[in-house]
Amino acid sequence: MATGFIGFLNTVQRFRHWGPEVTELALAGSANLLAAVGGGLVLRHVSWARWLLAAWMVFHVGLSAFHSVQELLVHVAIFIPLTYFLFRRQAAEYFDARLGSE
Question: Which residues fall within 8 angstroms of residue 29, CB to CB, at 6 or more apart?
Answer without folding.
Answer: 8, 11, 12, 15
